[in-house]
Specification:
By secondary structure, this protein is of the alpha+beta class. Helix content is about 15%, strand content about 30%. It has one domain. It is globular and about 45 Å long.
Length: about 160
C-alpha cells in the first residue's frame, strides 16, 4: 500500500516517549499496525483500550512510532528515531476511538496538515493544522499512512485487528 497522500502531511515536532501499555488494567479493543513491506519491520503500533467495567466510557490509546529514518528526523533528536504518546476520550456523541488516537499522536509530537477529506474539490491548505478526532476509525488508517510517509516509508502493509 502506498503511503503518499497529496492532501495530508504528518510532521514530527518534538521527541516524546510517553506511550502507555494499558493492557494489564484495560481491555484492548483495537490494534493498528503499519509494517514496512521491504524489511517487514513494524513502523507504527496503535493500541486502543477501554475499561473492563460495564459502565466504562473512557477510551484510551497509545501509539509507538519506530524507525523514523535519519533524514526524516528533526536535527535535535536522539539517534534512535522512536517516539510514543498516549491519549484519551470520554463522553458521548462522537467517535471516541479516533479522538483518543488523535490525542496520542499529538502527545507523541506528531502534527497533521492539510485535510482528512479525500473528496474535496479544492486543494487543501497544507499550512493548516488539522485534527481527525471524531472523524471515525477510517481516519486512523489515513493518519497512520501519513505518519509512515513522513517517517520515510513509501510501501507498507496496514493491519487492523
Amino acid at each position: 500500500m502506498k503511503t503518499l497522500n497529496k492532501n495530508l502531511k504528518a510532521h514530527f515536532t518534538t521527541e516524546n516517549d510517553n506511550g502507555k501499555n494499558n493492557g494489564q488494567k484495560m481491555e484492548t479493543i483495537s490494534t493498528y499496525k503499519v509494517v514496512d513491506k521491504k524489511t517487514e519491520r513494524e513502523i507504527i503500533l496503535v493500541r486502543v483500550y477501554i475499561g473492563r467495567s460495564r459502565n466504562a466510557e473512557t477510551v484510551k490509546a497509545s501509539v509507538w512510532i519506530n524507525g523514523i529514518k535519519e533524514n526524516k528526523r528533526p536535527s535535535d533528536w536522539s539517534q534512535w528515531g522512536s517516539i510514543s504518546g498516549h491519549g484519551s476520550a470520554g463522553g458521548w456523541g462522537y467517535c471516541k476511538e479516533s479522538t483518543a488516537v488523535c490525542d496520542a499522536f499529538a502527545s507523541a509530537g506528531v502534527h497533521f496538515f492539510g485535510s482528512f477529506n479525500s473528496y474535496i474539490d479544492k486543494k487543501p491548505d497544507m499550512k493548516e493544522r488539522v485534527y481527525f478526532g471524531g472523524y471515525g476509525t477510517s481516519s486512523i488508517k489515513t493518519a497512520c499512512l501519513a505518519v509512515a510517509n513522513a517517517a520515510g516509508y513509501n510501501d507498507v502493509i496496514f493491519v487492523e485487528a
